[in-house]
Amino acid sequence: MPSGASIALRPDLGLAARAWPFEEARKILARVERKLAKGEKVTEVVLETGYGPSGLPHIGTFGEVARTTWVMHAFNTLSPIPTRLIAISDDMDGLRRVPDNVPNKDMMTANLGRPLTSIPDPFGTHESFGHNMNARLRAFLDNFNFDYDFRSATQEYKSGVYDNALLRVLSKYDEVMKVMLPTLGEERQQTYSPFLPVSPRSGKVLLAKVVAHDPDRGTITYLEEDGSEETVPVTGGHCKLQWKPDFGMRWAALGIDYEMYGKEHYPSAPLYNAICKISGGEPPEQFMFELFLDDKGEKISKSKGNGLTIDEWLTYAPRESLALFMFQKPRVAKRLTFDVIPKAVDDYIDLLEKYHANETSEADRIDNPVWHIHNGNPPAERYPVSFALLLTLATASNAHNQNVMWGFIKAYAPQASPEANPGLAKLVDFAIRYYEDFVRPEKKFRPATEKEHAAFLDLAAKFEAMGDARDPKAVQDVVYEVGKAHQFEPLRDWFGALYEVLFGQTAGPRFGSFAALFGVKETAVLIRRALAGEFVAAAAE
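^ that's the sequence the OP posted. Answer follows.
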């Protein structure tokens, strides 16, 4: 593209789109425009995501790559400039603590301080611990078909990719220290250096005191663990930078245009920016996302292994639901626990339905999350039954296999079948699995009160009189009518009673939708069984 030329936008509505990936893409677009206006040549836009492989990759790592990919796709919609996503692993970091979720902890303890790619693999399958963690990262990114350029920090340092930026940091050593020292405590200031030497004696990445630096020779002199002096080059993998200077240096060395990071990085962003400029680069456009929390409200961690893993989520729900969970409200902290899965699945189904609705405009379609998580091409399949309904159906029918579930589904939606609805077929399997592992063990049935007993009998009689009714609205109207007639105030108490007595749960999907799916006659039988005490008695056994 000629210098100073304006960007030829693709015929799309992305410039006015409200979805957050387009907001971020427009920031990158403005950055490119600024460069072009200054006469700079722009041949590609480089986005980056980083990974610390000190423990098993977790679901938050996936989220960071997925979100960056959505921004990249939005930018590709706005501009013909090629894009590239670099996924870099900080595998040259020294191991500071042994992860809780790895074997051979004694061996790992003996290697504390060494670069992750210099520590034997505790699993015994790869060249090193770092190589194993990198392989796991790439495997699950590949499973989601991400388009990325994987980089190992060890290779970047050793191959010389960072050498020019490192020498520039060395030449401006005092300037870097002026940036970093005010952020440190008084004691740490006495020993701090932006360079961490890799000891030629022990192989450890040392937090050593640097006593001299020589920009002309490209070396630092530091105090070894025994107090003696050692001189090493800052290039060729003999040193690495402390993580905050490393962040900024990397932006400059790789020409990064965009990076997003978790909330824990936000206070350090001014430092990253300053080091990037000192290293000869222009800080990228940035986006801060909130953290994922476990069931105790604590940040999920690779070393702790707390929170859900990708495999655990995909055991109970399709990958689209996980992608949607990552897409929604990235600046809001969210609990990443098993109980969020059903809502994520049904949110996806609802959004897919809205995307394909005839009245949906093109502008609304590209603001719909499903447009982003499917790279602009959401699938055509529709879901006549929600995940919440499938879970309640599994409860009511005590279903343990697909055949039982599909019997009810086909009666409700005759056109549906496992062959015509492969997504729904997978959802049925997921629902049975989720019901068995999470819903069934937590069920707590109770008997109906005297007031509820009379209302339940009334509802059963009305359902029996409805024949083969399958209209969810008509059925729901009857449920409302009975609740009002028996003076439940507020009406949510009536629906709460239905779920507690019939299903042993405190809540569920619209009861009329369930009864239409299960069958009104079958639901009447269910009600009479509950009133006869069958469910309470079975739960007590």
